[in-house]
Structures are given as structure tokens and as C-alpha cells.
Amino acid sequence: MEGRAAPGLYLLGWLAAGLGLALFIVAAGTSSGGLAGLGLTLGAAALLSLGLVSAAGAQGAQRRADGVAAYVGPSPFLVFAASLPITVLLVIVIVGGASIAGLDALSPLGALVQVLLTALVYAGLVRLLVVGPVALSWAEMGLRSLPPTRILGDAIWGATFALPVIFVTSIVAALLVGGLGTTPDSPLPPSGNTEGFLINLVSGALIAPIGEEIFYRGFALTAWARTMSPRAAILRSAIFFAFVHILTVSGATFTEGASQALIAFAVRLPIALALGWVFLRRGSLYAAIGLHAAFNGILLVVSQAAAGAG
Fold first, then answer.
1. SS3 128
2. Alpha-carbon distance 264 to 173, whole Å?
3. Start-to-end Cα distance in the chain
4. Which of 310, 306, 92, 288 has the alpha carbon at shortest distance from 197?
5. Who contacts 71 (Cβ-Cβ below 8 Å, separation ≥6)?
6. Which pLDDT does position 58 carry in this prediction?
7. Are 276 and 161 in contact (CB under 8 A)?
8. CA-based nearest residue to 59, from 14, 21, 18, 16
């Protein structure tokens, strides 16, 4: 504790995170389930959220006190770790509560709510832990106040790279799927009808690109570009982005799950690398959002057309 810039936050971070992790282990081993298991899970998520957010705040305070000039905010890895229990907590409370009222959590609407919550958590943590302590400003993360025509122009410029990236991604996917003999499930549920497709389009081509670009390019890539070369920062952010997207991948067997995770990771690397390049090249997060939205939107339209033809 001695010499810490924010000893209270540091201590709170360790204690709350440790207690939260312990509660998660207890909750996972609780055979009774029901309200007791739910209560333990909620308590664990709340404690872990408090602990990791406090730890991130303490890390940023320490870096400022140490006089680190390049980047004085918390590690993107730590901020992402803090986002996980917060999102779990919100999903359980909001989506779980809505499920009682009749919302199907596995439907396109249920997925939309979860995607929206994730985006809000990303943006909220960046505001609290990065923008608030003046580690980075929104403008430095590419969200400058521009005329609508300039914002649209940046988004369209980024979107023009979508088809070439989809071409490369398709080759990578075809080689891996053919070689490993398995295909990862879509991150969004089957639409089933036009209404479901439109909801998936809002989730995948609007909300997810905005939330993810704020976090992975605006925040993470900008922070890393302050401390390493642009190429290294792009590569690290791309690997980070691709890795995060395989955390929920699973399979009937370990081999199937590992194969699906490998495919899911590899097919996201081309778009992740392109998003990083577009962001730094244009200096605008709107360009990265435009590319991300176009990439996801085109794939969703193609998938819907294929399902209709089948």
C-alpha cells in the first residue's frame, strides 16, 4: 500500500474482486440453484464489477502519479475485464426481468437488448475510467465534433473497404471450414422472418459497430498507439478483438469447440486489421464504424438471402 497514488481504490479493488471471484466459485458449485444460486451470482457479479472498476481507477491514478507521459489511463485489458461482470449483471437483471414478462432471450429482440447493454457498458467505462480522468479525450479517440457531411463522408470512405475485406475473410473461412470440417454458429440468433432480420440488422450493423469501435479502436488502439508503433498497436488490437469474440464459442466436444474457436478467431483477423488501419489512416472513428457496419450488414444480408433461397 505504501507509495500507492490511490491506496483506497487499490485495496478496494483487490478485496472486492477477490470476494467476487470466490462467490462466483461458490455459485458455480451450488447444486440447489434457484433464488439462492441467482443471488450468489448477482452478488458475485456486483463485487467483481466494483473490484475491477476500482482496480482500473487505481491503475490510472498510479500511472498519472508516476508521470507516464505517453498514456496515463488504465490498461484496455483491465477495463475489458471490468466490462464482463457488469454486462453479466445487467443481462441477468434486465433481460432476465424482461423474460418474465415474455421476452425470449434467444430471439433477435433478446439479442438486441444484450448487444445494446454491452455497447452501453463499453461506452460507460471508457467515459468513467478514460475520458473522466483525462487520460484520453473523445476527440483523441476519433470522435471529433464534425459537420454531418464530414461524418458521413468518413463513414462512406471506411465502408468502401468492406467488400475487399469480405473477399479475404471468405477465403480464410473456406480454407479453415474445409480443413477442420466444422462451422461456428452465428453470433446472432436466426431471424426467421423479415422483422427478425431487421432487428438483427440493427444489432449487428448499427449498435455493435458503434460500441465495439469506441472500445477496441477508439480506446484500446489509441492507448496502445501511444506506447508502441502503429503496426504493433494495430496487431495487438486486432488479436484482442478477435480473441474476445471467441470467448463464448463452444462445441459438443473439446475438439469441435477448439476448431470452432480457431475458425472464429481467424476469420475476424482480416476485418480487425482493416478496422485498425482505417482508423489510424483516416484519424476518424466514424470511418471505422462505417467499415464495421458495412462489413456486418453485407454478411447479414447475404446470410438472410441464402437462408431464403434454402
1. helix
2. 9
3. 63
4. 306
5. 63, 135, 136, 223, 224, 226, 227
6. 95
7. no
8. 14
Residue 140 lies in a domain: no
Which run of H or of E encompasses 166? helix 162-180
Same domain, yes or no, for 153 and 290? Answer: yes
Element (H, E) at 47: helix 34-65
Q: Which of 59, 46, 84 is nearest to 7 (CA)?
A: 59
pLDDT of residue 97: 84
Task: Tell me which residue range forms the domain holding 211.
Answer: 146-310
Cβ neighbors of 308 (< 8 A, separation 6 or more) are none
**Contact 270/165 with Cβ under 8 angstroms?**
yes
Question: Quick check: 191 pLDDT over 60?
Answer: yes
Mean pLDDT of the chain: 92
Q: What's the mean pLDDT in 172-192?
A: 88
The answer to whether 44 touches 21, Cβ cutoff 8 Å, is yes
Q: Distance (Å, rounded) from C-alpha 38 to C-alpha 23?
A: 11
Q: Are 22 and 45 in contact (CB under 8 A)?
A: no
One-letter amino acid identity for 290? G
Same domain, 93 and 182: no
Q: Are 245 and 188 in contact (CB under 8 A)?
A: no
pLDDT-derived band at 271, boundaries 50, 70, 90: very high
* Total domains present in the chain: 2
DSSP characters over 192-253: -SHHHHHHHHHIIIIIHHHHHIIIIIIIIIHHHHTTS-HHHHHHHHHHHHHHHTTTT---SS
DSSP collapsed to 3 states, 63-127: HHHCCCCCCCCCCHHHHHHHHHHHHHHHHHHHHHHHHHCCCCCCCHHHHHHHHHHHHHHHHHHHH
Same domain, 21 and 113: yes
